[in-house]
Each structure stands twice: as structure tokens, then as C-alpha cells.
Amino acid sequence: MSVPRDRFRDGLTWDDWLDVLGGQGAAWRRRFEEVALGELRADYEDVPTPRYVLCLFDPGDAAAVETVPIVARACDQAGVAGGVDLRLFPIDKNRDLADQYPAGAGRSFPACVVFDGDWIQVGVWWLRSDAGLDAGRTHEALRGLLDALRGPPNRPWQGHRHYGEHRRKQVEQAERAERPPGPP
Questions:
Q1: 119 close to 2: Cβ distance less than 8 angstroms
Q2: pLDDT tens digits for 112-149?
Q3: At 175, is the secondary structure helix, strand, or coil?
Q4: Considering only CA atoms, which of 124, 134, 128, 101 is closest in space to residue 52?
Q5: Mean pLDDT, rounded, for 26-49
Q6: 118 found inside a domain
Q7: What angle do CA 131, 69, 113 make, to 5 degrees?
Q8: φ, ψ of residue 39 in degrees (nearest 5)
Q9: Nearest-CA neighbor of 114 among 74, 67, 162, 65?
Q10: I need a surface site. Which of 38, 132, 157, 158 has the fewest CB within 10 A?
Q11: Do the beta carbons of residue 27 and residue 35 sit within 8 Å?
């Protein structure tokens, strides 16, 4: 089952969300300003448009404060100006949508559902439940969202395609740092 366009229009824009937060939106605003697309900027500019991104998130979760501004910045800079329309849906007020795109099996909120101009769902991106709050996660989140925005034929339905490898390398580095010098 898809999400009707009218329901999408009921979502909050980034600016609407900051207004809802009022004075408590400083951390969200600061994170938005800090995010840079870096080496992915050209890839984001080539995203086919129009795209419509429905972002489900838990406003009380630290991962949302860290990740939703990344999504907002990426959508703001993707495609041609105004070509990617982001709407935010807090799961506490949109339980039916959260149930339609459930977290679990290595996925957690935030989740983004991407539609094209014909209102065909072309991608879904979930935050991995084992994602840490480090700088590498920003890059992986941007790469995963990019895949979802592109839609078919460029890796549809896939986000964080290299995260497992990234996480494995982090663990190996941490283990090497804990080993005493000398032979194993």
C-alpha cells in the first residue's frame, strides 16, 4: 500500500518542524547547518526530479536529532532547485505510517520513502539500527539516501550498502588499538 499524495502534503516541511520545536530546535538547526555533502555533492545534483521524500522519525530519539537534519540538508541541495520535496512525519502522530514502514531486522527510524513525479515509490531508506553517532554515519546516511533518491536502476531499495564493511573496519581498528604492543 502506498501513501496518497494528499497525505504527503499533510506532512511538515523542515521550516514547519523548526517552528513546532520553537526554542528547542537549536540542536536540529545547528546540525542542519553543519552538514556538507562533500564528495557526494555532484551526485546529489544529478538526482532525477521531481522527488518526494516522506521522512518518518521519532522526535524523542537522539538518532533523529542527528539524522533528520542530514536528510533535510540533502533534500535541500539535491536535484534542481526545489526538485526534492521533503515532508516530515513524527511517528508519535503518524502511527499508521510507521506501521506501514516498520523498523526492525537491522532497521530503525528515521526512515525515508521516496516517490517520483508519477507518485511511484522508487526507494526506501532506513537508518541501520546498529549505526553509531560518528562522522562516518553522516557519510553513510548521505550515500544510502542518495541511492533511495535515485531509484531504479541505480541500486533500488538499498541503503547503507557498505555500512557493514565500514562497521567491521571500525571494530578492527578499535581491537588493534586495545592490543598491547608485541607479538599476538
A1: yes
A2: 999 999 999 999 998 775 555 566 677 788 888 898 99
A3: helix
A4: 124
A5: 90
A6: yes
A7: 75
A8: -65, -15
A9: 74
A10: 38
A11: no
Span 49-92, pLDDT tens digits: 899 999 999 999 888 898 999 999 999 988 876 789 999 999 99
Q: How far is Cα 97 from Cα 183, in angstroms, rounded to an integer?
A: 54
Q: Is residue 114 helix, strand or coil?
A: strand
CATH no. for residue 151? 3.40.30.10
107-116 vs 51-57, strand pairing mode: antiparallel
- Tell me how many domains the chain contains: 1
Whether 184 is covered by a domain: the verdict is no
End-to-end CA separation in angstroms for the chain: 55
Does residue 64 fall inside a structural domain?
yes
H or E, element range at 87: strand 84-90
Query: What residues make up the domain containing 52?
Result: 5-178
Distance CA 142, CA 62 (A): 18
Residue 183 within a domain: no
Write phi, then psi, for 163 (nearest 5 degrees).
-60, -40
